[in-house]
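Re: export button greyed out
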Amino acid sequence: MAEHTIKAFDEEIDRLRGLIAEMGGRAEAAIENAMLALQRQDKVLAAQVVEGDKRIDAIEAEVEKLIIQVIALRAPMANDLRDVIAALKIVSVVERIGDYAKNIAKRVPMIAANTRTLEPISLLPSMGQVAGEMVHDALNAFAARDADLALAVVERDTVVDDFYNSVFRTLVTFMVENPKTISECAHLLFIAKNIERIGDHATNVAEMVYFAATGQTLPDRERGGSNAAMED
Amino acid sequence: MTEEQKLLSPADPKMTARDVKVFYGVKEAIKGVSIDVDMDNVTAFIGPSGCGKSTFLRTLNRMNDTVASARVEGTITLDGEDIYAPSMDVVQLRARVGMVFQKPNPFPKSIYENIAYGPRIHGLASAKADLDVIVEKSLRRAGLWDEVKDRLNDSGTALSGGQQQRLCIGRAIAVEPEVILMDEPCSALDPIATAKIEELIHELRGRYGIVIVTHNMQQAARVSQRTAFFHLGELVEYGVTSDIFTNPRQERTKDYITGRYG
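Workaround output, generated via the alternate export path:
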């Protein structure tokens, strides 16, 4: 894209996009590490994820401050305006993604406290991986202003929803058969829900990227799946 | 018909311009511009210096007639009547399509006379009582009455810049125009005087067709419902103001309004 006549404007936009890239990278890592901690029952790694969320929150605050400044001082127009508004919404969504990863990490010690083997746990890593990839692609789409990649992310949301429905059914069945694991399984259910929400938020990011890139909002789409995946 | 089409092609246009070209000697300054003006919405012309926006504005009340080398092609109508027809009375045309200029230019006469002069020479009123009514009404519409009602005999040139500009708007209003053309009416004014003029434009909308040329894009965004972007004599993009400023369709428009021009 051509440069602005006022160079300082470009510098601010670059800084803004750099901060969002960093924030997105940290959120992705948080999801990955939270899932790894869950698999390995690694409390230390889980604690690191919880601690790392502070930096994500701090970047959100920094980006918000910068955006208010850009709007006040530069009065951005057209694609610049859409970029800045999208960025403002994206950081609040990515901050939520970080919170979900943190929430998953916080549950690790409670599950790890029990040595019983939980078969359904094996379903979660691949679900977490799909959600993590959605976050990754949504932020790549933002960095590249790529509307097509954003659309691809939106379409993938149903995969996570289907995963969730399957995990939900499996866990319920497992709990019926193994009532002593209900406490741990309840945590797993929340974790699955958190991952499902991460997928929804990645979709929101992608929708904002699409808007920023094209000036059009995506038409309402069919939300994937059954009652179990409905908004909580 | 979509809202956008209704706004851009009003069913009941006050003025229409069709394939208008303006030549200065052999140089084509305006390259085939078509646009409609109605009473309900303000039209803003934006674009870099030399893009032709003022030239085009001036074709709407034949101000280019005073430029010897200027030649206008195409059709411009007011209430369906060709304003370049030989039968058109240009003095009458300019009363119906008034103009406010960049620099406030009140007559070196009293505030009262600045307003009363036009109606008197156009024969709208001659009795003092009738003129008093016109002066008060015009100054009220121009948002100036309360500030000058106790000093109507002071010179118009003694007013502040912003007041002078509102006096000039009042002067244009006094001859009961149908359309008011404004050529950068705020470029010599401070922000508060500018805000007052913008508020005035908002109030006058509906009663008069208003076309404003401005270098200040924020002003175009604030006061207009339709925006036309001119570049090198072409009408590059003409659209609903909110669309032009959030999602322009043309690359040149985008580069200009986002500050990437040139």
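Chain B touches chain A through 15 residues (CB under 8 Å). The button fix ships in the next patch.
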